[in-house]
Amino acid sequence: MRVNIIKYARDNIDTDVIIPGQYLKVHDYAELATHAMEGLDPDFHSKVKEGDFILSGKNFGCGSSREHAPIALSHSGVKAILALSFARIFYRNSVDGAFLLPIEIDQDTYDGISEGDEIDIDISKNEIKNITKNQTYKMKPFSEIIGKIIAAGGLFKYQPDQD
Amino acid sequence: MGKTLFEKIWESHIVVEKQNEPDLIYIDRHLVHEVTSPQAFDGLRMNNRKVRRPDLTIATMDHNVSTTDRSLPILDQTSAVQIKTLENNCKDFGIKLFDIHSPNQGIVHVIGPQLGITLPGSTIVCGDSHTSTHGAFGALALGIGTSEVEHVLASQTLWLEKPKTFEVRVEGKRSNPHAVTAKDIILSIIKNIGTAGGTGTVIEYRGEGITDLSMDQRMTICNMSIEGGARAGLIAPDQKTFDYLRGREYTPKNYELLVDSWKDTLKTDSDAIFDKQFILDINDIAPQVSWGTNPGMTCDVNESIPSPDDFSNGDANQKKGAEKALEYMALESGTMIEDIKIDRVFIGSCTNARLDDLIEASKIVQGQKVASNVSAMVVPGSQMVKKQAEEMGLDKIFIDANFEWREAGCSMCLGMNSDILSPGERCASTSNRNFEGRQGNGGRTHLVSPVMAAAAAIHGHFVDVRKLDLN
Hints:
Chain A is α/β, with parallel strands linked by helices. Chain A has seven helices and seven strands. In chain A, strands 4-3-2-1-5-6-7 form a seven-stranded mixed sheet. The longest helix of chain A has 9 residues. The radius of gyration of chain A is 15 Å and the shape is globular. The model of chain A has no long low-confidence stretch (mean pLDDT about 95). By secondary structure, chain B is α/β, with parallel strands linked by helices. Helix content of chain B is about 30%, strand content about 15%. Chain B contains 16 helices and 19 strands. In chain B, the strands form five sheets. Chain B has a five-stranded parallel sheet with strand order 5-4-3-6-7. Chain B has a five-stranded parallel sheet with strand order 17-16-15-18-19. Chain B has a four-stranded parallel sheet with strand order 11-10-9-12. In chain B, strand 4, helix 3 and strand 5 form a beta-alpha-beta unit. The longest helix of chain B is centred in the first third of the chain and has 17 residues. Chain B is globular and about 55 Å long. Chain B starts with a helix and ends in a 12-residue tail after the last helix. The mean pLDDT of chain B is about 95.
């Protein structure tokens, strides 16, 4: 799949800027999506397109356990977050409900990809291709366990391998 | 090789264990609130499932509740709907609920321990990241999202990858324990390990600096484990823990037998090895004040705000983060913390709204008045804390000083009800997160202890409470 990158070149993008507390009363996911990233980038909703990826630094999604954060991003059209590292509750929430793919990348990949770059990912090969710059990077593979939950389509669909 | 306390609790709760699979962990207590549960209950209904153990599930409303007169109707319609939804869900699924009129209502992490629901050696989950608070009792307490809330409601279990272990050893003794508090210890820890320092780990806080603390203070420490990125934080139970829980409303009937078994088992073996370690010496630590937009951006009260270069140690993103934080906070490097004037004071939240916190803050406030340019409020962590404080006359001390004295709830910690900062307002807050907009769009948060917040209210700016007579 080919997608565009929205880059936030900073660490510690927290759940309160992803979806501010005042919107945790909103139950309609489409409406929730209109407030995604509002605390950081009020233009986000107008620029995000179906299938886009967000690229960011360390500790993405730190803070609250609100599942509204990956839900708001997912319903905005975002399919994956590429980040140097993730806060664990956000990571689990993204995978549990099959909202987003949280993909860990290294510093070279982070530095190599710019806002607006068109990229193509191949999860089976753990490969990220930057079509705009004609470069290829490796993504950190999902742990075996997380890979199985993702493959199953979320926590409720996951069942351990039978003996 | 010996085992850590965390490993012992984990192993005693494994339901299913297979190589290269997550472990299925049994959950002893599930705490539910109005914000992260509605979709979970909807999911149960859609799949025609029941709550597996309603007797192990307890609900309250705390995040969006009004902290003013509760005999009045709820004005905010979306809050009213969320509150009504929890009432209906608890009724439909047979779950015990402490609603806004219950004497047991309060912030979920304050009422669990107060009611004797939080027990040593147990596993506790809640759809809230500050569930780590309950770790102060030697429980493994994890914050979870709504999908996981639904999974626990349906099965009383959770698939989990076993976290790593992290020893945070707090050594030494504070020379002025009224001025330098548990909040200053945990902010110092986060300042040092960073906001992602504990990622993927469960922290065990150990050492004299921890065992010296009261249970209320230990909860402040464990509460902010998540701000250091950890999955959970815990402290081995001791006599203080056992005494705290004795005779509470939901303390088990066979409590003394349980205590006997906990004494032998709920501790880290002397030959256990942690995956990671950090040591903090607290002999000389100062009261802490956050200056930026995450809890790691914190310095001593007698210091000046660092430059982005000094703060970042050469890391480009850290430097950019500090620059953006200073811009958002409208602060300049080199400004002395004590010269920062404030507009609002919030004493509240699951971090610092327990009885010990209010007692300590009241000592600063007694006989004083809030500065004319400041508006200040106290929001007790639970209705029980409020009642206990009122029995001690603390409400009068705060009210006489022109503090507002409110009903229990999360309030201005996360800006879900009408208790919010206006854009540009600067607040000395005893809460746990200073993220952009956390306390209201454009609001500026400085994280401090209750005594530091109280002193800032009186003086209109931050003051080093070590200079005040607190005895």
